[in-house]
C-alpha cells in the first residue's frame, strides 16, 4: 500500500481526481480542447481556488491574483528544486527549475519568454524567477555579490524605465532581455542586460491618469533637503510641467519615498561612484528644469526666453555654457550657400527643440544606465559559461488611441508569436522522431504574412515610413498614409478609411490605418509617426551636449557624432534590427514560455472578467498553441513513471515487474483494455491520444488504491 500511496496526490495524475472542482492542471487534458469556453471554464475554476498557474504542455499560463499568495516561500522553492516537471502542481518555480536542470545536465543555453499585456504580472514573474535562482543555486561569498547585483539591477531599471499607466501602476515602458550566466557547477557568476525601445515620449507627455517615470517622483519625495537644494528642485511635483499632465503625481499604491531608499542602496551595491550618482541626478533634475522653460514671441515672431531661472540651473547641472545653451534652444543651424548660419526658431519649433533635448538626454541616459549595470555584472574570467535568458517584454497593446509605440510593440509580439509556434512545432516534431512515432502535419495560422507586411525590405510599412522620413520635400503623416495606400493597399491585412467598405469605414478616421494582426485588428493613428521615427535633435543642440562637463552626458553624446554627416538610423529601423538580433539569440537557445493574464481592469482579487480574459487568450495565441500541442497525443510519459504509478491495475505487473518497463507497460495497457487508436508506444515513452483514456485509468487507480 505504501508503494502505491508513495507517489500519488503530489503529481499531475493525482490531481485529476478533483478535476470537476479545480479543473485540470494541463489544458492538454481538456476533452474539448478546441473550445474557447472549455478553456475559460478551466481557467476560472482554478482561479477561484487560488490556483493561478496552469500548463499547456510545458508552457505556463499565469493569472494575476492581485493579492499576496503564500506560494513563494523558501520552503516552496526547496520543494520544486530538482523535481520532475509534472510531479508537482504547476508553478513558476517548476519552469525555472526545469530550465536550470536541463542546462546543468545537457550544458546548453535556455531562455524563458514572459509575455502578456500591461498589468498581467510579467515583471513580477521575472523577479520571482531571479529570486528562485538566487536562493536555490550553489553560491560562495564572491558569488553573493553577483547575486545581489542581479537582484538589485531590477529596482534601478524600474525607477528609470517604469511608470504608472492606466492599466498598471508599475508598467515597464521598455523591453528587457537579461542573460544570467552560470559556471560549470551551476552557480550564477554574471549577467548581461539588453533593453529595447524605452518610451521616451513619456518624458514630455503623459495621458490623463498616468505618470512620468518613477525616478522623478522618487527624487522629489525621497531626496534629502541638501540634494534638492543643490539640484534647484522643490519637493512639490505640481511645480513641474513634465510631471502634472496626467494629474496624478501621487498614487496611493506607490511609496516613492521607500522606493527611493531601495534605489539609493542599489546604486552603492551595483558599483556607482558618488560622481556617477551626482551626474545622474543632475540629468534627472535638468529634464524637470527643461520642462519649465517657457518661450515667448518677440516683435519679429521669433522665440525668446524671458525668465532665465531654469536655464541657469541646466547650465550648472550639465556643465554647459549658459549663453550657448540659450542660443541653441531658440535657433537652429542651417546650411546656406555652403556655410552654416543660425536661423531663429518660432515659439512652436522652440518647444519642439526643448522637448527633443529632454527626450534625447533621458533616452541616452537610460542606455548608459543599462551599460553601467552590465559593467558591474560582467564576469571577467574566460571559462565556458551557460546562460538562462529572461525576456520580459511588453505584450500586445490595444489602447483607445494607438500610436507609433503600439505599432512597434505589436510588431514585436507578432515576431515572438511566429517564433513560439515555429519552436513548438519543431519541438513536437523532434519528440515524435526521437520516439519513432509518425508525425502528422498540423494546420495552423502562419503569421509570416503579417510580419512581412511590416518588415519586408523596400515593400513593408517600416521601409515606406523611412522613405517618407528621408525624402526631400514636404513629407507629412498624411503623405505617409497615402504612400501606404498606394504600396500595400491591396494587402489582405491592411485597410484605411479610403480602402474600407461602407460598414468598416465608419470606425476608421481619415488619419488612421488598420492592421489585422494574428491577435485581432488594431487601428493606428498615423499622426506623429514621422516625428517619432525621425527622432531628430538639431545639430547645434547636439554640439552643446557633446561639450558638456557632465560625465554621463559626455559619454552619451560623442564628438565623433558631429563629424558623421550621414543621417542616423530611424527609430523603427533600429528597433527592427535589434528585434532581428534578439530572435537570433532566442533561436539558438532552448525555450520555455510563461503567458501572463490580467483577470480584470480594476486590479481586484478574485474577479474574473470573461470578456477581458477571452480577449487575452486570443492575443496570447493560447488556443493556437494548445491546438499544436494536442494535435497528436494529449499525454506522454516515460515508461518507468507510467508503470510505477499504475502497476497495481494488472496482476502481471503488481507488486513488481521484473522485465523492461516498456514491456511492463504493454502488458498493463492490454490488461486494462486500451484500444489501438488510443495510444502509441514510442522508444522511451507511452503516448496517449485522448484525455478520457487517461482519466479512466486514473479513476480505476483511485478505486484500486482504496481496495488495497
Automatic annotation (TrEMBL):
> Where in this chain does the record put each Myosin motor domain?
23-702
- What name has this protein been given in UniProt? MYO1H protein
GO BP: actin filament organization; actin filament-based movement; endocytosis
Q: Which domain of life is it from?
A: Eukaryota
Query: Does the UniProt entry include the keyword ATP-binding?
Result: yes
Question: What GO CC annotations are associated with the protein?
Answer: cytoplasm; microvillus; myosin complex; plasma membrane
Q: Which UniProt keywords apply?
A: Actin-binding, ATP-binding, Motor protein, Myosin, Nucleotide-binding, Repeat
Which PROSITE patterns would you find in this protein's record? MYOSIN_MOTOR
Family as reported in the entry's similarity comment: Belongs to the TRAFAC class myosin-kinesin ATPase superfamily. Myosin family.
- The residues the record assigns to binding ATP are 116-123
Q: Where is this region: Actin-binding?
A: 579-601
Gene Ontology MF annotations: actin filament binding; ATP binding; microfilament motor activity
Amino acid at each position: 500500500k505504501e508503494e502505491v500511496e508513495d507517489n500519488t496526490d503530489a503529481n499531475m495524475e493525482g490531481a485529476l481526481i478533483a478535476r470537476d472542482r479545480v479543473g485540470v492542471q494541463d489544458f492538454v487534458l481538456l476533452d474539448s480542447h478546441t473550445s474557447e469556453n472549455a478553456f475559460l471554464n478551466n481557467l476560472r475554476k482554478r482561479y477561484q481556488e487560488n490556483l493561478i498557474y496552469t500548463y499547456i504542455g510545458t508552457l505556463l499560463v499565469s493569472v494575476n491574483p492581485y493579492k499576496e499568495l503564500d506560494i513563494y516561500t523558501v520552503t516552496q522553492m526547496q520543494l520544486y528544486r530538482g523535481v520532475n516537471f509534472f510531479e508537482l502542481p504547476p508553478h513558476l518555480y517548476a519552469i525555472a527549475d526545469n530550465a536550470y536542470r536541463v542546462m546543468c545536465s545537457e550544458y546548453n543555453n535556455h531562455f524563458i519568454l514572459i509575455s502578456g499585456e500591461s498589468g498581467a504580472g510579467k515583471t513580477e514573474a521575472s523577479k520571482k524567477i531571479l529570486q528562485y535562482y538566487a536562493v536555490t543555486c550553489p553560491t560562495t561569498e564572491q558569488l553573493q555579490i553577483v547575486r545581489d547585483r542581479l537582484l538589485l539591477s531590477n529596482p534601478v531599471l524600474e525607477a528609470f524605465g517604469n511608470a504608472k499607466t492606466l492599466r498598471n501602476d508599475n508598467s515597464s515602458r521598455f523591453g528587457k532581455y537579461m542573460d544570467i550566466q552560470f559556471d560549470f557547477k551551476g552557480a550564477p557568476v554574471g549577467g548581461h542586460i539588453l533593453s529595447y525601445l524605452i518610451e521616451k515620449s513619456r518624458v514630455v507627455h503623459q495621458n490623463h491618469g498616468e505618470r512620468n517615470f518613477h525616478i522623478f517622483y522618487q527624487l522629489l519625495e525621497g531626496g534629502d533637503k541638501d540634494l534638492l537644494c543643490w539640484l534647484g528642485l522643490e519637493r512639490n511635483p505640481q511645480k513641474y510641467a513634465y510631471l502634472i499632465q496626467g494629474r496624478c503625481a501621487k498614487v496611493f499604491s506607490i511609496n516613492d519615498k521607500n522606493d527611493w531608499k531601495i534605489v539609493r542602496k542599489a546604486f552603492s551595491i551595483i558599483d556607482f561612484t558618488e560622481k556617477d550618482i551626482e551626474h545622474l541626478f543632475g540629468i534627472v533634475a535638468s529634464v524637470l528644469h527643461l520642462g519649465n522653460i517657457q518661450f515667448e514671441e518677440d516683435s519679429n515672431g521669433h522665440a525668446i526666453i524671458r525668465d532665465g531661472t531654469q536655464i541657469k540651473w541646466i547650465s550648472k547641472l550639465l556643465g554647459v555654457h549658459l549663453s550657448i545653451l540659450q542660443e541653441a534652444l531658440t535657433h537652429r543651424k542651417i546650411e546656406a550657400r555652403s556655410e552654416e548660419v543660425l536661423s531663429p526658431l518660432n515659439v512652436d519649433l522652440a518647444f519642439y527643440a526643448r522637448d527633443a533635448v529632454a527626450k534625447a538626454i533621458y533616452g541616452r541616459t537610460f542606455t548608459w544606465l543599462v551599460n553601467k549595470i552590465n559593467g558591474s555584472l560582467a564576469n571577467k574570467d574566460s571559462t565556458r559559461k551557460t546562460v538562462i535568458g529572461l525576456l520580459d517584454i511588453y505584450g500586445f497593446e490595444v489602447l483607445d488611441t494607438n500610436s507609433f509605440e503600439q505599432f512597434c510593440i505589436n510588431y514585436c509580439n507578432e515576431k515572438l508569436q511566429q517564433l513560439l509556434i515555429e519552436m513548438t512545432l519543431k519541438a513536437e516534431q523532434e519528440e515524435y522522431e526521437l520516439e519513432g512515432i509518425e508525425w502528422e502535419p498540423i494546420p495552423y495560422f502562419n503569421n509570416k504574412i503579417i510580419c512581412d507586411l511590416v518588415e519586408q525590405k523596400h515593400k513593408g510599412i517600416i521601409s515606406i515610413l523611412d522613405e517618407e522620413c528621408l525624402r526631400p520635400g514636404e513629407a507629412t503623416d498624411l503623405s505617409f498614409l497615402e504612400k501606404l495606400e498606394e504600396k500595400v493597399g491591396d494587402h489582405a491585412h491592411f485597410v484605411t478609411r479610403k480602402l474600407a467598405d461602407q460598414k468598416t469605414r465608419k470606425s476608421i478616421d481619415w488619419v488612421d490605418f488598420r492592421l489585422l494582426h494574428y491577435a485581432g485588428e488594431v487601428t493606428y493613428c498615423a499622426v506623429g509617426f514621422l516625428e517619432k521615427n525621425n527622432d531628430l535633435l538639431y545639430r547645434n543642440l547636439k554640439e552643446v551636449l557633446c561639450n558638456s562637463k557632465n560625465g554621463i552626458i559626455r559619454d552619451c553624446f560623442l564628438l565623433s557624432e558631429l563629424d558623421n554627416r550621414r543621417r542616423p538610423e530611424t527609430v523603427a529601423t533600429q528597433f527592427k534590427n535589434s528585434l532581428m538580433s534578439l530572435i537570433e539569440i532566442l533561436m539558438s537557445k532552448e525555450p520555455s514560455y510563461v503567458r501572463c493574464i490580467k483577470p480584470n481592469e480594476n486590479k481586484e482579487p478574485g474577479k474574473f472578467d470573461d470578456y477581458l480574459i477571452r480577449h487575452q487568450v486570443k492575443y496570447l495565441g493560447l488556443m493556437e498553441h494548445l491546438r499544436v500541442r494536442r494535435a497528436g497525443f494529449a499525454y506522454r510519459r516515460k515508461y518507468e513513471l507510467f508503470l510505477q504509478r499504475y502497476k497495481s491495475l494488472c496482476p502481471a505487473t503488481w507488486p513488481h515487474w521484473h522485465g523492461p518497463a516498456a514491456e511492463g507497460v504493454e502488458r498493463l495497457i492490454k490488461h486494462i483494455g486500451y484500444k489501438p487508436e488510443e495510444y502509441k508506444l514510442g522508444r522511451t515513452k507511452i503516448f496517449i491520444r485522448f484525455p478520457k483514456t487517461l482519466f479512466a485509468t486514473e479513476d480505476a487507480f483511485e478505486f484500486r488504491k482504496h481496495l488495497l
